[in-house]
Amino acid sequence: MAIPNDFHIGSVKSLAPLKGKANEISTDDFLQIMAATMKMPAMPGGSEGGGGSETDQLTQLATFNMLDQLSKISEKIDSGLLINQQQQAFNLMGKEIKVVDGNSFLTGVVEKVRFDKGYATVEVNGKSFYLNDILEATSKA
Question: The whole model's pTM is what?
Answer without folding.
Answer: 0.51
